Automatic annotation (TrEMBL):
The modification 4-aspartylphosphate is found at D55. SMART domains: AAA, REC. This is Two-component system response regulator GlrR. It comes from the Bacteria. PROSITE patterns: RESPONSE_REGULATORY (PS50110), SIGMA54_INTERACT_1 (PS00675), SIGMA54_INTERACT_2 (PS00676), SIGMA54_INTERACT_4 (PS50045). Pfam families: AAA_lid_14, Response_reg, Sigma54_activat. CDD domains: AAA. GO terms for molecular function: ATP binding. InterPro entries: AAA+_ATPase, AAA_lid_NorR, CheY-like_superfamily, Homeodomain-like_sf, P-loop_NTPase, Sig_transdc_resp-reg_receiver, Sigma_54_int, Sigma_54_int_dom_ATP-bd_1. The keyword Transcription applies. Residues 141-370 form the Sigma-54 factor interaction domain. It comes from Sediminicurvatus halobius.
């Protein structure tokens, strides 16, 4: 019996950990363990569990704090809390905060396994075996990033519904690829997927492109045109850069979404349409609404379920995977024998800022591939293609120093330069805390004067 689902078990009692492992592994689950909340947080990205089971009362970080940290980083990851009988009221309260459930200790194996199965089923978590059988829907999205896997899990859960999906992400992060993946996993997969960039079509033509027009409706309308809504009938319409749509057209789009009918330009007759809408933008639509450039009622009609794509700089573990995939594609396109990147070239790719995200990565790889005269792409070609020597990923020592300085500054701001109070918040003695301040040339008195 193999389920392929991974469970992370967290408890500072080795005996409880051992017992849980036996029970869960006997049912085919893959089990990883951690003896503290801190250890669990450090390893969750590597384990990529489908479920976390944690004790409520632990030394250091307790189960509820662990849950809150997991909730921020992995909002779809279900958590079950183990609790002694005396702490059941706390556990009940925890379920109100989003904890999937709690199990009293000592636990009965059937109750444990029933709740584990329920948590995995209701969360939509899919085992490795199941996912490998159903990869077609996301075949064009390559990732080993936990952040991206969280987005894809949400996408897989919402896909079978008819809910409108709103995708937010910087330019070049792959919003259309994600929209296509949602379509492929939906019941409309056999229907058309039609994409339109609302910012790329002139305002006076966009209405005709979306809703169609009748012959003679305007100068140049020499024949009937069905429009993209009609082309997507029975399928999915992807409205990219919806934030660029003019207000006058937003009103008409809202009416179409409410009535499920379109009226082509120059026609007096409304036509029924059955279309699922997925929209996307790189803009902050809440800011756009505040400035009066985007309708609030349309926003809430489109944003039933929201998916947020991380920028490439926040999923650097995907850069070698994507770069080698692009290189393989480009080698075939240009008829060249390219096998990979020199180590220094790959290090440069991983460390670059990537303000243009995946689209920029593809362009850099393409330029290097075209100019490379050897099977292994050298560093100088990547450097030339990037045209930017500024590393986007700092060295570990630099990152730790910057974090430490920013952390100390924040403490001094909070305490208004009170070193004793700041040291207590940092859980360090005064002498050690003064050494830290001196290391970063921080003068507490300056923060007192700032009051």
């Amino acid at each position: 019996m193999t389920t392929g689902h991974r469970i992370l078990v967290v408890d500072d009692d080795p005996g409880v950990l051992r017992l849980l492992c036996i029970r869960l592994r006997s049912q085919g689950y893959e089990v990883a363990t951690a003896e503290s909340g801190e250890e669990a947080l450090a390893n969750v990205a590597g384990v990529r569990p489908h479920l976390v089971i944690t004790d409520l009362r632990m030394d250091g970080m307790d189960g509820m704090t662990l849950f809150q940290n997991l909730r921020r980083r992995h909002p779809n990851l279900p958590v079950i809390i183990l609790t002694a009988h005396g702490s059941i009221p706390d556990a009940v309260e925890a379920t109100k905060s989003g904890v999937f459930g709690f199990i009293p200790k000592p636990f009965e194996a059937p109750a444990l396994l029933e709740q584990v199965e329920s948590a995995i089923r209701l969360s939509g978590a899919r085992s490795e075996a199941t996912e490998s059988e159903n990869e077609a829907w996301r075949a064009h999205i390559l990732t080993r990033s936990p952040a991206m896997e969280d987005v894809l899990q949400r996408a897989r859960m919402v896909a079978p519904s008819e809910a409108s999906v709103f995708i937010h992400g910087d330019s070049g992060t792959g919003k259309e690829l994600l929209a296509r993946a949602v379509h492929q996993a939906s019941r409309r997969a056999d229907g058309a997927f039609v994409a339109v960039n609302c910012g790329a079509i002139p305002e006076n033509l966009l209405e005709s492109e979306l809703f169609g027009h009748r012959k003679g409706a305007f100068t140049g309308a020499t024949s009937d045109h069905e429009g993209l809504f009609k082309a997507a009938d029975g399928g999915t319409l992807f409205l990219d850069e919806i934030g660029d749509m003019p207000l006058s057209l937003q009103v008409k789009l809202l009416r179409v979404l409410q009535e499920q009918q379109i009226r082509p330009v120059g026609s007096t007759r409304a036509l029924p349409v059955d279309v699922r809408i997925i929209s996307a933008t790189h803009r902050d639509l809440e800011d756009e609404m505040a400035e009066g450039r985007f309708r609030e009622d349309l926003y809430y009609r489109l944003n039933v379920v929201s998916l947020s794509l991380p920028p490439l700089a926040e999923r650097r573990e995907d850069i070698p995977l994507l770069a080698n995939h692009f290189l393989s594609q480009l080698a075939a396109k240009y008829g060249k024998r390219l096998r990979g990147f020199a180590p220094e070239a790959m290090e440069r790719l991983v460390s670059a800022p990537w303000r243009g995200n995946i689209r920029q990565l593809y362009n850099v790889v393409e330029q290097a591939a075209i100019l490379s005269t050897a099977p292994i792409v050298p560093d100088d070609l990547v450097q030339s293609a990037l045209r930017d020597d500024t590393p986007g990923l700092p060295a570990f020592a630099d990152a730790r120093r910057d974090f430490e300085r920013d952390y100390l500054v924040k403490l001094l701001q909070i305490t208004e330069g009170n070193v004793s109070q700041a040291a207590r918040l940092a859980r360090r003695n005064r002498t050690e805390f003064y050494k830290l301040l001196n290391r970063h040339d921080l003068n507490p008195s300056l923060f007192k004067q700032a009051r």
